[in-house]
Amino acid sequence: xxxxxxxxxxxxRPHPHPPxxxxxxxxxxxxxxxxxxxxxxxxxxxxAAAAQAEPASxxxxxxxxxxxxAVADGLALTPPMGFNNWNSTHxxxxxxxxxxxxxxxxxxxxxxxxxxxxxxxxxxxxxxxxRDAEGRLVPDPARFPDGIRAVADYVHAKxxxxxxxxxAGTKTCDGAGFPGALGHEYEDARQFAxxxxxxxxxxxxxxxxxxxxxRYTTMRDALRATGRPIVYSICEWGQNKPWEWASGVGHxxxxxxxxxxxxxxxxxxxxxxxxxxxxxxxxxxxxxxMLEVGNGGxxxxxxxxxxxxxxxxxxxLLIGSDLRTASPATLDILGNKEVVAVDQDPLGxxxxxxxxxxxxxxxxxxxxxxxxxxxxFNETGQPQRIATTARAVGLPPAPAYTLxxxxxxxxxxxxxxxxxxxxxxxTVLVRVAAGRHWAxxxxxxxxxxxxxxxxxxxxxxxxxxxxxxLGRTPATxxxxxxxxxxxxxxxxxxxxxxxxxxxxxxxRTTWSVTAPAGTPTGAYPLTLSETHRSxxxxxxxxxxxxxxxxxxxxxxxxxxxxxxxxxxxxxxxGPVERDTSNGxxxxxxxxxxxxxxxxxxxxxxxxxxxxxxxxxxxxxTRVTADVxxxxxxxxxxxxxxxxWADGTKVASTDVLTNAxxxxxxxADVTGARVVRLVVTDGGxxxxxxxxxxxxxxxxx
Length: 700
What we know:
alpha+beta; 8-stranded parallel beta sheet; 6-stranded antiparallel beta sheet; 14 helices; 39 strands; globular
C-alpha cells in the first residue's frame, strides 16, 4: 500500500490511518453513519452533523456537487493568492505572531498586495496540543500571546485576509499531535469565524478511515452555518479524486501529495495536475500545492517555470518562502503582474496540453479577451526548440498575431508560428492575440542552437546558432553575437549579419568556443544575442541563455557509472547517491543498494522523477545495469527505467514494483555524445519511488 501522505515533503508528518472507502466513485457515508463512526471511536458526534438528512441518492449528491459554492457565495472566483508559512518555517519557533505580521507588512511594502496576494495563512502548530475544558481550541500563548483574533485584526487593517489550518482527523499532521476537527467541526468553525478567519486549509491526517466526502462536507456545512464568508481549501491529497466530487464542497482541492523544493517533485506534481483542466473554474480550483519559489532548492530558471506553469494551470498562488529574506530575483518572479494576470484571468480556464513530445510541452490557456496564454515548457536538461501555431492553440485565422513575452515584457508580431529555443528546465510564456494592430509591433525572431555546447578544456568546440524570422514582415539589419565567461575564446567562423530575414528564413553562424586549459568540469554560461529592425526602423532584440559544459572524455574500457563524474543529476527527493540507495532527503543517508534481497556494492540510488547525464563523447558503446525498486521502502514504490542516447530512447522497462526481481538492462549507446539515465514514477506519483541502477557500467 502506498503512503496516503507522500514522504517527499519537507517535514516528517505522520501518515494518516488508511482510508477504508474505495477511490473515486464509492458510496459516501451518511451523516448518521459519521455519528456512529465517531461514537465507535469514543468521540461525540456534532449535533448539527448528526441531524443532517441523508442525501436521497448518489445521483442527488452528484447534482448538488455540480453547483459550485462559488456561484452562490461569490468566493474564490479567481484562484486564491497569498502566503502559507509551512514550506519555509515548518513547526519551528520562528512561526509566530511577529512573523505573520511581518509578512502582512511585506505584502504591502513590496507591492505583493497590489499584485493580487491577499491571504496570509497560518499552517499547523498554531494551537496547543490539548483543547480547553470546554473543548475549544487554544492558540499557543508562546507563539500567539494575544490570540488569533489580534493577528486577524492586524492583517485586516492592512486590507488583507487571514487563513488558518486544521485537519479532518482526530489530530493534525505534525508529530506533536495538535487537535484536529473530526467530531468538532461546528464548534471549531464557529471559533474560526469569531476570530475573523477568512480561509481554512483542511488537511487529511489521522482521519480514522472515515469517508472523505462526509468529513469534508461536514466542515463545509459547519463553515456555512457560521454565516462568515470563508474560503474552503480541501487538502485531501487527491486520494479520492476530489476533482470529481468537491466542486460543491470546497473552493479548491489538492490534487496531489505535498510538494518539495526540488525539480523532480515540482515536475511530478505538474504532470498529475495538467490533465485535470476540465474540472477547474471560478470557485472550484485544482490545487497542485503551494509555491516553492525562493526556498533555494531550484534555480531561478526552474522557479520561473514553476510560477509560469502554476499560473497557466489557474492554480492557487500561495507563496511558500520567507518573504523577510526573499531575494530580488524571488520578488521579481512572485511580483510579475503579467504572469499573475494569466493566473487571475476571470474566465477561469485552466490551461490545456496542446502537445508534449519528448519533454517539449505546449500548454495553452484561453483568456477572457479571446487571447491565449501559451507556455513553451522544456522538461529536459538541455535546450530544446518548442514550436506550435496560433491556430493550434485555438486562435482564429488572421494575417498576423501580436505576441507578448510575459517574462521579457516585450511585444512583437508573428505570421502564425509560436516558437522558441527554451533553456533546460525553462519556460517561455507568451500571450498571443489576433487583431488589427499587429503591424505596430516589430517582427518576432527565434534564436536557436544546433546542439548542446560541450567542450573539453583547452580544445576548441564547434557550435552553430540560428536567427530565424517569424514575422509577417521581414526582420532587417539582423546582427548576432555570442559571449562566454571571462578568459574563454569565442570566435565566429561564418557571417554574423543579414540584411533581411523574411518569414522562415534563417541566419546560420558557426562559432568556435574554447574553454581555457585547466577549466574545471561543470556548467558555464554562454549568451546568444541578436538585434534587428522592423521595415519601419523599430529596433528589437532578444537573448538566449545557454549552458556550456566542460567535460572529461570517458575512460577506455568498462567503468562503474558510480565512479564517473556526471554532467547533471536531477532527483525527485534528496540527491542522487553513489553506491548506496536514495535514502531520504539528506546527502549520504542511503543504505546498501538492495534489490529483492540481493545486495550490490556499486550503482546509483535515485528517486523518481530522476535523470542522470554522462558525457560519452561518441566513444562508448554500451550501458548495463540491474534495475528495480530498492527494498528500503518495503512493498511501496512503482517506477520505470529508460536509457537515452542523445535524443533517442535506446532501452526501457515496463513499470516495476518491489515485488519484481531485478531487471537486467542493456543499452546500445554507440556514437552518443551524452547518455541519460531516466527513472519515471510509473504514472501514479512519486511516493516511495526509490529506484536503483545496480551494478551500472559503461563500456567505452
